[in-house]
């Protein structure tokens, strides 16, 4: 029986107060810098770049934009360019060269309403195939963009005419293990999770978790679908085993009641994808570990393969804030380093120790 | 376990944790350094050879769309090239234009200069020659006269011809040749020569006299008369002329009756010649060009049957007639065609032909199967309100939905409105009118049709509603319907 002290520790290394509402934060790949996106009190958007310097986060650049910035990703940019793609309240998708961020490298009016979520793949050496950006919006559509193509998305997933449009809260790329295959998973406010196969341009799977889907993430984007974590509005999250799809039952999953409030975000540790962090509406962070079952699939009564879900164990939890933690991002370069933003207008650089001992 | 040992363990772990954290911090420090170096290196790096990226997703699908638009822009460009916009400030264009014009004019001038030079040179030579030629034609004339006196007219003609070739301005030579022709009874040539001589010298009496004789011989009495009258003018008291004139007037009186008859015959013959003669070519001699369809313009009113112009006196014409008769059957066929392929472009053509062939007072067409047929039928019955009324009467109001699946055609709509006003008001119940108006208002593109109503058509609609109102058979749908019709 190990004592709590043997578990990984989550320590707030740096705390930085800002004067705007923080929505998202992202490490700039291959650097000690991260960007924070948010909404200034005067209604404009702001993008700040911080750098870790000897235990401090130093602001090195601040860029103001007309529309509040909701989300961002480096996922579709090359490591050398490191262009940031952002989605704003006006439904615009912009790609910025952070060295010269006056005008976007790529700009498109992607949605009619706020872009809630964004994800990228094909850049940074993560994921095979073309660099693509996916955006989900309150207008109910999920669109996939290729920055080589102006004005129009390469794929557009929207509700059939007549069906009510649901607010899309989260999108995630996955399954990008070769040039052709790629999947987009989208979560909606009504609890729908839809998995779109971009190769076939078809809906591969859908389910409803009976609660608004706040965040979705594949454990890895650049392998065959393995695990998918879906967090919900009322404190639960599901981990799906995405390897075996049963024709009727779909994917096997394990559900865990994590927080007493909304689970805002989930992020897998890039260096160990069985470990992931969830951020709670009460300002708590939970670090989880997924344990695979002895056998990942078995035959059902009719001899059809069906997945077997594993188990989830809580490694550590810590309450950092009284306000929801809106986002968290693991450093892709330094294991155990992460940055989080919360609605108490604070950016925190966190250190998680003992991750290599798990 | 004892509590002291537990406390000790805790302490140890705390220490361990602190060490771990310290280690991490140290590590972080060094990582910071490393990553910053790496970062700096990366940002200094310039595009390290573009990776070959996979194609854009669904590009093919987009390409199709794009290529179409591209083509259109290209053609636009071509068109622009063909018809460049002539802006006043487009100096390039005007410069170019001027240059071209100038080059044109210069070349033509050069040509003219050249011509003039040649002319000058040649004229010098000609002058020298002329004296020689003059001598020659005089000589030829003398020889010709000599032959003539001898009665060797052919030889004389040869001489005169040579003389004419040498000097075409002398009126004597053709006149003399004409005399020779007269002698050998070649009156036609004689007449021509005389005309030539007269053209050269209009006061040459002998030429007129000779032409007169030639014309008498050719039977052109009235013209001969003119000639001799001219001779008398030029040489009053010319005996030959007087006697010839007397002869001519006598003959003319005799001939007038005959001539009239002749004229009649001629004109009759001309009339006869108007007939189209059937050409019967064997198949291998026929033109290989495909037959061209001639568009037939619609002209209102009754059409005369083509038989009036075609007289059947050979096989070809008979066949034409047969075709005409066969057309009735073809009409039936074409009608079937139209109903089965309403969208086929040929259908309309067939329809038009049929319309032009059928007299307006034809049979009443049946209930139309589609909007095309309805449109065609309406066009055919146009100007015949009674027929139109009975025709429209056949169509149940509910049938309009089926007829106008795609959209309500404004023209048809106006036609219906017109008939409703003209005939329905006096013959039908207001309820029926109301029902029809209501059905029409529910059709697609109805709003558009209303929008394009002209003043008189609006008046028609107003009259219809007034009629309904007067009948007091309005129901709750009436007011909204009125609004729909823009009243």
Task: Please provide a written account of the structure.
The complex is a heterodimer of chains A (358) and B (487). With 358 residues, chain A is mainly beta. Chain A has a single domain, classed as YVTN repeat-like/Quinoprotein amine dehydrogenase (Methylamine Dehydrogenase, Chain H, 7 Propeller). Helix content of chain A is 0%, strand content 54%. The radius of gyration of chain A is 19 Å and the shape is globular. The two termini of chain A are 15 Å apart. With 487 residues, chain B is an all-alpha fold. Chain B has 19 helices and no strands. The termini of chain B are far apart.
CATH class of chain A: Mainly Beta
Largest sheet of chain B: none
Q: Most extensive interface, residues per chain? A: A-B, 41 and 32 residues
Strand content of chain B: under 5%
Class inferred from helices and paired strands of chain B: mainly alpha
Please, what is the CATH homologous superfamily of chain A?
Answer: YVTN repeat-like/Quinoprotein amine dehydrogenase
* Share of helix of chain B, binned: over 70%
Distance between the termini of chain A: 15 Å
Ends apart, CA distance between termini of chain B: 99 Å
- As a percent range, the share of strand residues of chain A is over 45%
H-E order of chain B: HHHHHHHHHHHHHHHHHHH
Please identify, by name, the CATH architecture of chain A: 7 Propeller
Integer tally of domains of chain A: 1
WD repeats (chain A): 133-155
Protein name (chain A): Dynein axonemal assembly factor 10
Organism (chain A): Engystomops pustulosus
GO biological process, one term (chain A): apoptotic process
């Amino acid at each position: 029986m190990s004592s709590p002290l043997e578990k990984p520790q989550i320590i707030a290394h740096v705390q930085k107060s800002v004067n705007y509402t923080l929505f998202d934060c992202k490490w700039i790949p291959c650097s000690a810098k991260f960007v924070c996106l948010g909404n200034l009190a005067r209604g404009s958007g702001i993008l700040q770049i911080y750098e870790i310097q000897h235990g401090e986060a130093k602001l090195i650049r601040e860029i103001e934009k007309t529309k509040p910035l909701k989300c961002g990703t480096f996922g579709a940019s090359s490591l050398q360019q490191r262009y940031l793609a952002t989605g704003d309240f006006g439904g615009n998708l912009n790609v910025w060269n952070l060295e010269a961020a006056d005008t976007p490298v790529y700009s498109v009016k992607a949605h009619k309403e706020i872009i809630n979520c964004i994800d990228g793949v094909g850049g940074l050496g993560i994921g095979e195939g073309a660099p693509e950006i996916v955006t989900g919006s309150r207008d109910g559509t999920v669109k996939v963009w290729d920055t080589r193509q102006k004005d129009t998305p390469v794929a557009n997933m929207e509700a059939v005419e007549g069906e009510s449009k649901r607010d899309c809260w989260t999108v995630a790329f996955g399954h990008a293990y070769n040039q052709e295959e790629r999947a987009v998973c989208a979560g909606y406010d009504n609890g729908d999770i839809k998995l779109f196969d971009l190769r076939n341009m078809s809906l591969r799977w859908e389910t409803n978790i009976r609660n608004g889907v706040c965040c979705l993430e594949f454990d890895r984007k650049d392998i065959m679908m393995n695990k998918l974590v879906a967090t919900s509005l009322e404190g639960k999250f599901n981990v799906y085993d995405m390897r075996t799809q049963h024709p009727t039952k779909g994917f096997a999953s394990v559900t865990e009641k994590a927080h007493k409030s909304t689970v805002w975000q989930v992020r897998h540790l890039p260096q160990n994808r069985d470990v992931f962090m969830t951020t709670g509406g009460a300002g708590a962070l939970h670090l989880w570990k997924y344990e695979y079952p002895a056998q990942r699939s078995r035959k059902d009564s009719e001899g059809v393969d069906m997945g077997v879900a594993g188990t989830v164990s809580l490694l550590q939890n810590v309450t950092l804030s009284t306000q929801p933690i809106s986002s968290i991002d693991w450093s892709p370069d330094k294991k155990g380093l992460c940055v989080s933003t919360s609605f108490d207008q604070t950016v925190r650089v966190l250190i998680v120790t003992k991750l290599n001992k798990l | 376990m004892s509590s002291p040992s537990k406390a000790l363990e805790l302490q140890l772990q705390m220490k361990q944790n602190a060490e771990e954290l310290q280690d991490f911090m140290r590590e972080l420090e060094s990582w910071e350094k490393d990553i910053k170096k790496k970062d700096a290196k990366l940002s200094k790096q310039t595009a390290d050879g573009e990776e070959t990226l996979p194609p854009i997703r669904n590009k093919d699908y987009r390409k199709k769309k794009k290529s179409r638009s591209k083509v259109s822009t290209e053609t636009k460009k071509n068109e622009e090239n063909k018809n460049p916009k002539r802006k006043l400030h487009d100096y390039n264009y005007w410069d170019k234009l001027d240059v071209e014009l100038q080059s044109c004019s210069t070349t033509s001038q050069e040509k003219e200069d050249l011509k003039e030079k040649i002319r000058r040179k040649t004229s010098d030579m000609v002058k020298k020659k002329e004296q020689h030629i003059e001598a020659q034609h005089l000589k030829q004339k003398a020889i010709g006269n000599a032959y003539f006196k001898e009665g060797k007219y052919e030889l004389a003609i040869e001489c005169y011809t040579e003389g004419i070739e040498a000097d075409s301005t002398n009126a004597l030579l053709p006149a003399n040749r004409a005399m020779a022709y007269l002698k050998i009874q070649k009156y036609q040539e004689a007449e021509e020569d005389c005309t030539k001589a007269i053209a050269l010298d209009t006061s040459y009496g002998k030429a007129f006299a000779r032409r007169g004789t030639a014309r008498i011989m050719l039977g052109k009495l009235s013209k001969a008369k003119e000639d001799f009258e001219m001779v008398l003018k030029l040489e009053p008291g010319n005996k030959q002329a007087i006697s010839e004139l007397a002869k001519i007037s006598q003959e003319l009186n005799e001939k007038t009756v005959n001539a009239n008859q002749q004229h009649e015959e001629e004109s009759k013959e001309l009339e006869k010649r108007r007939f189209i003669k059937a050409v019967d070519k064997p198949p291998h001699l026929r033109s290989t060009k495909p037959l061209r369809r001639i568009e037939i313009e619609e002209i209102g009113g009754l059409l005369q049957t083509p038989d009036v112009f075609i007289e059947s006196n050979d096989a070809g014409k008979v066949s034409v007639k047969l075709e005409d008769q066969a057309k009735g059957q073809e009409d039936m066929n074409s009608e079937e065609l139209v109903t089965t392929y309403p969208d086929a472009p040929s259908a309309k053509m067939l329809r038009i032909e049929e319309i032009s062939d059928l007299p307006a007072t034809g049979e009443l067409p049946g209930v139309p199967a589609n909007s095309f047929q309805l449109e065609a039928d309406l066009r055919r019955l146009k100007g015949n309100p009674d027929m139109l009324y009975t025709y429209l009467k056949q169509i149940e109001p509910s049938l309009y939905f089926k007829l106008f699946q795609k959209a309500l055609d404004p023209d048809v709509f106006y036609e219906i409105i017109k008939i409703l006003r003209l005939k329905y008001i006096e013959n039908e119940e207001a309820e029926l009118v109301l029902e029809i108006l209501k059905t029409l208002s529910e059709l697609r593109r109805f709003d558009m049709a209303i929008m394009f109503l002209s003043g008189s058509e609006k008046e028609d609609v107003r009259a219809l509603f007034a009629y309904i109102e007067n009948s007091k058979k309005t129901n709750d749908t009436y007011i909204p319907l009125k609004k729909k019709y823009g009243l």
